[in-house]
Design a protein that fits this description.
Blueprint: E1 2-4, E2 10-12, E3 16-17, E4 21-24, E5 28-30, E6 33-34, E7 39-41, E8 44-46, E9 49-50, E10 55-56, E11 61-62, E12 67-68, E13 73-85, E14 90-102, E15 107-108, E16 113-115, E17 125-127, E18 132-133, E19 138-140, E20 143-145, E21 150-151, E22 156-157, E23 166-167, H1 179-188
Parallel strand pairs: 1-4, 2-5, 3-6, 4-7, 5-8, 6-9, 7-10, 8-11, 9-12, 10-13, 11-13, 12-13, 13-14, 14-17, 15-18, 16-19, 17-20, 18-21, 19-22, 21-23
Length: 196
């Protein structure tokens, strides 16, 4: 069986839908192959292949030439372009994945950007099996995050990350105790003027 929420779901061109699929809301699928037991919620899939047991959406955008392996989650507000995602991997929310190869059982944290364009040419990012990319990270291509590596949240990665390693690429947190009290004293004492 296929459950399609009409009239808003649109299937165009040479689109093939497998068995036991659910397509909900304003979804649009164009020239794509969708496997069995796939759930698509208010999302767009263009010229791509989605394997079995995949969950997509809501509000995901799969641009041309994406290949999504089985048991993958592509969540809300995720955009993929020319990307391969390996079995069991998760790209749960708020992420751009362009010109990338993601291995098996990888987790991509929210707010991650695969920085694929240098102003002249598109470059590829590879995230190998078992890797973990923390929230709000930038992976500046060409770059590889090797097997079972971690990228700390908030990092901008510009060099390859070795296998089984932690990459931290951000400024160290600094705490200035009493800073707010000192500022208020200065403001109340008229030492600092508010600029308009």
């Amino acid at each position: 069986y296929i459950i399609v929420s009409l009239p808003r779901a649109i299937l165009e061109g040479r689109t093939n839908i497998g068995e036991c699929c659910t397509i909900i809301g304003s979804s649009r699928i164009v020239d794509s192959n969708i496997g069995n037991n796939v759930q698509i919620v208010m999302s767009q899939i263009l010229e791509s292949t989605v394997s079995d047991d995949v969950k997509i959406g809501p509000f995901a955008n799969l641009r041309p030439n994406c290949n999504i392996s089985s048991k993958v989650k592509i969540g809300d507000f995720v955009e993929l372009k020319n990307a391969k995602v390996g079995e069991g991997s998760k790209v749960p929310h708020l992420t751009y994945v362009g010109d990338a190869v993601i291995g098996k059982k990888v987790n991509i944290g929210c707010g991650t950007v695969f920085v694929n364009y240098d102003g002249y040419k598109k470059h590829q990012t590879v995230v190998e099996d078992g890797a973990f990319v923390g929230c709000n990270s930038n992976l500046v291509a060409p770059v590889t995050v090797k097997t079972n590596s971690y990228v700390a949240a908030g990092s901008t990665i510009t060099r390859d990350v070795p296998e089984n390693s932690l990459a931290v690429a951000r400024a160290r947190q600094e705490i200035k105790n009493g800073w707010v009290s000192e500022l208020r004293k200065k403001l109340e004492g008229g030492l600092l003027k508010n600029e308009e």
